[in-house]
Amino acid sequence: MGQKRRRGLVSFLRSVGRQMRLSDFFRLPFLNDGEVGSSAIVIKKATKVGAPVAVIFSSVNSNGFSYFKLFERFEGAITRIYVRDPSDMWYNNGVSENLNDSDKLFQYLHKTIRELKPSRVMCFGSSMGGYAALRFAMSGHVDLCVSTSPQTILDTRLPHTPKEPVDAGGYDLRQDIEALDHRKFLLFFGAADFVDVFNVLRVHWAGATVYPIANRDHLVAEYLYREGVFDHVLKSFIAGESAIGEAISSVLPALDNRVFDPPTFEAISRIVESYYLAADWDLAQLAVGLIEKDTWADAEHILSQYYRKKQNFGAAVDMANRAFKSAPASVKMAEALASTLRSAGRLDEAVEAYERCLEIRPKQYSALCALAELLAEKGEKAPSLRLLLKAQEIRPRLSRAFDLQKKLHQS
């Protein structure tokens, strides 16, 4: 080891704590200016001393790091700290043997940021990453927290939650968030997804900038990335602008401000609580009440699933079609229609619906697997295998596509 590199190692060990053993260093999931690989944290420094810092928390099932291409466009102007959770437990179990809970992870990140002496700090993420961004902003100083489609309660009965329950400290963020200054929070969510509406608006955001994106679902972050909204957020932050919401107003897509209406939000909350959390509300009456007043894709979708559970497949398909027509850009509505058609035994229509779903989002893992399974049942093994191989490439840590391929080879 060269003299300069040896001094660098010694300096780093001192900086992370005098009580740390050498073996602890090798358990840190850390690469400084490294390549994106198996590490859970990668730091890539800006060329400018004192540049702002962004901590980017990856979403679930990330093979590399979420939003890597987005942030690398600004490599000279901002230091990037990429973080991912290999266990997909919403960062509650930390990211490694050494940083094995969220408190240790956040303390480590804050310490690293202080040593960088940045001019400003932001955190960023969507879904699981959005939840982590909120918690990181709650744990120490940040100037801006950009959180898209975050969970604020990790009840495992809700969609987009961990596979196992989490400890009380990470379960419900509402009370701790409401105790903060909200001016540093910039939130986006899909207004066509009632669970996302519920997660965000169950918190009373006093002074935060909150954008409900019309006709979009939980995957709204992909749309915002494509439309350049996140690009503008980063440019504004790097430029030192404080009113980020105003700075991006020219590129914002259509909003659905109906969700801010108190009676409407109360109905949405009760629908979510009834459908997912077994609350004793009249689900059908609530959903029909919203639909009669206006177009609500997720009310139609949930009512479709209500009919489906009751084996009323005719009504289920009709309502699923309505939901898809109400939000034709929503992969959730497209996939729900396909799944409902399949349950109704209308397999040819289901194949077409899954194909439409994949036109909206070619990397929709569950739709790739479902369509592959349907085609295999129809004896179309070659296209089924192609879909499964694509699904495996997209989500190599998930087993469904591999299990279906094994089944396909055995048939």
UniProtKB/TrEMBL annotation:
Q: Where is the signal peptide?
A: none
Task: Recite the UniProt keywords alphabetically.
Answer: TPR repeat
- Keyword Nucleotide-binding among record annotations: no
TPR repeat residues: 331-364
What InterPro entries does its record include? AB_hydrolase_fold (IPR029058), TPR-like_helical_dom_sf (IPR011990), TPR_rpt (IPR019734)
Q: Which organism is it from?
A: Rhizobium rhizophilum
**Under which name does UniProt file this protein?**
Tetratricopeptide repeat protein
Classification lineage: Bacteria, Pseudomonadati, Pseudomonadota, Alphaproteobacteria, Hyphomicrobiales
Which top-rank group of organisms is this from? Bacteria
